[in-house]
């Protein structure tokens, strides 16, 4: 009867060790992906205190809006070709860039998606090896999924959480090494992004060949509605966080935990983000502002808060070479000039009349 206390002691010790290991794992996870720290301007009491962006153009009345505006504009590496989707739908098109025009627009995929502004195709990524991927809200179960498209049948890469009706996120990019990066929204519950479990509010990476049940790698957390994501030279990631509700819009690094983000002093609802070839200029397209805005980059942070430009943009944006392509109120793809044009443009100031 003597060994019994010793057996209990060993079991207790094992339990204590397991608990310590779990606690240490949670601490390490939190240390590796802290919430982005927001830098200036000071936090306001409520998002309702934020003014509209200078020169903001209200979206057209519902009856005058395009039925299927081009969105999620994505350049194909090495080619003068462009991918885009029809907002809120599962249709993906591919066209050719010829000078300042985009021609063609053949359908390369029609995915079974949940419709509406919080559904449809959320992100497109074109890898260096020619493979094309999409993130979308699947109609059958409302889950956010990633799939390889352009095949006879879409091949599922990963099946994520059920998507809500707001702050779905879904921005998608391909890294030089072949992995995919997906930015997942917090579904309107910022508290979810502060937990050590799940993927809500996180930037994660996926292996396109591991299968739909793979466990993603976590890159950063604390984001709200990260649809606008872009990759700069060398794989550096940037996010313009749309936020919404009581939370602030932010622009910052999506791949380096511990770095800070810069908050916007006004509301513009970025839906797309692009980086110039030299990596020195971040350009965003605002759904609520109806315009492009820019932020110069120095080091690991934007050097300026967003500066709203006269150029109109509502649904999508891409930089191809030195050309800037946008989808504005008519929902069609237009050439908005060169990156240097945007650098030279005088930003709009408070009190600028919408037009």
TrEMBL record:
This is Uncharacterized protein. Residues 244-256 have a biased composition (Basic and acidic residues). Residues 241-262 are annotated as: Disordered. It comes from the Bacteria.
């Amino acid at each position: 009867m003597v060994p019994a206390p010793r057996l209990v002691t060993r079991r207790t010790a094992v339990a204590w060790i397991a608990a310590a290991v779990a606690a240490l794992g949670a601490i390490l996870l939190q240390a590796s992906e802290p919430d982005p720290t927001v830098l200036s301007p000071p936090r306001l009491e409520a998002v309702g205190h934020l003014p509209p962006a200078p020169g903001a153009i209200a979206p057209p009345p519902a009856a005058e809006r395009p039925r299927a505006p081009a969105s999620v504009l994505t350049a194909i590496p090495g080619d003068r070709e462009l991918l885009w989707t029809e907002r809120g739908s599962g249709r993906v098109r591919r066209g050719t860039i010829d000078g300042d025009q985009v021609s063609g627009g053949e359908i390369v995929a029609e995915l079974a998606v949940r419709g509406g502004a919080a559904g449809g195709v959320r992100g497109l990524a074109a890898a260096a090896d020619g493979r094309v991927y999409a993130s979308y809200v699947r109609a059958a179960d409302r889950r956010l999924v990633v799939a390889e498209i352009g095949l006879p049948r879409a091949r599922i890469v990963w099946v994520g959480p059920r998507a809500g009706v707001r702050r779905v996120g879904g921005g998608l990019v391909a890294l030089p090494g072949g992995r995919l990066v997906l930015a997942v929204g917090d579904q309107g519950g910022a508290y979810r992004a502060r937990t050590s479990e799940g993927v809500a509010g996180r930037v994660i990476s996926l292996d396109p060949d591991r299968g739909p049940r793979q466990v993603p790698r976590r890159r950063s957390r604390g984001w709200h509605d990260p649809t606008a994501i872009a990759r700069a030279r060398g794989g550096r990631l940037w996010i313009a966080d749309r936020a919404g509700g009581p939370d602030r819009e932010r622009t910052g690094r999506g791949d380096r935990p511990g770095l800070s983000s810069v908050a916007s002093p006004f509301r513009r609802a970025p839906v797309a983000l692009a980086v110039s070839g030299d990596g020195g200029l971040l350009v965003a397209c605002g759904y609520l502002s109806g315009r492009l805005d820019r932020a110069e980059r120095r080091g690991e942070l934007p050097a300026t808060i967003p500066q709203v430009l006269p150029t109109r943009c509502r649904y999508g944006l891409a930089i191809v070479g030195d050309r800037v392509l946008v989808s504005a109120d008519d929902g069609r793809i237009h050439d908005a000039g060169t990156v240097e044009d945007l650098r030279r443009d005088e930003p709009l100031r408070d009190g600028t009349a919408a037009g």
